[in-house]
Every structure is written in structure tokens, then in C-alpha cells.
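Please review the protein record below. Let me know how this chain folds according to its C-alpha cells.
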Amino acid sequence: MSLDLDAIANRLEPRFGRAAHRWVGTLRQRLDDLVEQWELTLGDPLKSGNSSVVFRCVGPLGDAVLKLSPDSYAVREEVDMLRQFASSGRVPAVRESAKGAVLLEAIHPGTLVEKMPQPPSPPEYAAFLTDLHGAGDPAAAPRQLADWIDVLFNSATRRGADLSGSKRLRDDLFAVPTDTVLLHGDLHLGNVLSGGGRGLVAIDPMACAGDPCFDAVDYVLEGLDRAEMVRRRDELASAAGIDVGRLDAWCRVTAPIGATYVSNPVHSAELAAFGRGEY
């Protein structure tokens, strides 16, 4: 298999600096070792972000996905949290793990929900969230929701977001006790796959302990206009048995963050307006 090591190193460099180039220099040998150790037939690389390299492969248990990263701590956390969520049936099974590497069950058809022509219905998404939140021990979470929100706020501030209203709403939400679950934490629809008859499957958790409403936010905010966001908010809250007022507040906390990420200027403006409560 041909690997463009320079392209991989350049993709990882924004996250890991020059250390990315040193790590990529060991990648071929690392792949060879894992292929032998785990009895894999390596396939094509899959598109991934700036923190890992991912390959299709076939192992003793069938189709799989091999993921490697210079950040061995993050891989270890991902493995631990996927195992926490495993009983839900809503995450890929961990087949094998090693320092900086994990072999995961392949999900079929594996279409990203954000790429599906028809999004999941609110009842379908509610069942997904209910299963996910019914598994795992929030005491095992590597961070609290409050800590994760601070990370998101800091990143959005650097991109010019006005978070004054978001911070007031966040403080109001944290002032009222609520249920605490093990959250996926980063449940945008690029981290949710279609699993066919299995239903929706979540990947790449940034797990934290907190309010179950938080994991519902992205499904609401990925509606393309305010009317669709309000419809999703109300129908999802009803189907999932979560407090619509809290879900609305969390959407308004995070909408200005999302407005700094999306490339569609119309959707960005709609998110900003939703954050201001203009609906």
C-alpha cells in the first residue's frame, strides 16, 4: 500500500507540531507490527482529522478499522470510553488496543448522518440517546461537562465568538441540579454513523459527565433554519423524555460556538440568531 507520509505529517502538524514528522517516520514499521500482531489485511486509508490516521482492514473477526495517533493518551481514553458505552450497542466494539493504536469493529453501511439525504427522525435519535446514556458510569468520565464547556468557549473565543449570553445561560444551567450521565460530549452528526438495522452508532467520544440534554444539542442545531431547529428541539425533547427548557438553554449556549464553525453563511447566521433567542 502506498502512503504519502509527507501529506500525513503536514495534516498532523497543526495538532502535534514537529513531533508529527518524527511520529510519521515510524508509521510504516508500526503498521507492519500491528498487521502481524493482530493478523490484519490492511486496506485503504480513510479520511480523518488532524489527530490520527485511519485504515480499513480485515481481521480475524471480519471488517475492522485501524486507528493510530501520536496522542497515545487520547487513544487510551477513547478505548476506555467505548468500553464504557459498549453495553448500549451504540458504539463500535473494541477488537484490540495497544499504545497509540486501536482496532475497532467496522460499522456498515457507516454513512455519516450529516451526509444522509434524510436525517434520523426525532424518535429515532431519542432512542439512540436513551441507549447511549443508559450505559456507562459517569464516575468513570475523564472530565466534567463544565470543564469541556470551558475548552469549547476558549476555542470559540479565539475565533471571534461573542459568548457573553452563553456564559450567563451556562451558569444558570449549572446552578440547577439535574441528572448526570456519561455523555459522548462531541455528538455532532459527523460523529454519528448509520448502522443499518442496528440503528445509529456514535464514534470518537469526548466523554464527560453531565446533563443528558447536552448530547442532544447538535441534532437540534444542525437543522438548517430556526423553524427546523425548533421542531427538532420540541419533538426530540418529547421523544427522549428530557426537559425542553433545559435543551433549549443548552442549544442557546452552544449555538454561537457552532456559528463560528459552519461554512454555510446562512446557517451560521441562523445559529447566531438562535443563540440570541430570536425564534
Observations:
- The chain has eleven helices and nine strands.
- The domain at 5-105 is CATH 3.30.200.20 (Phosphorylase Kinase; domain 1).
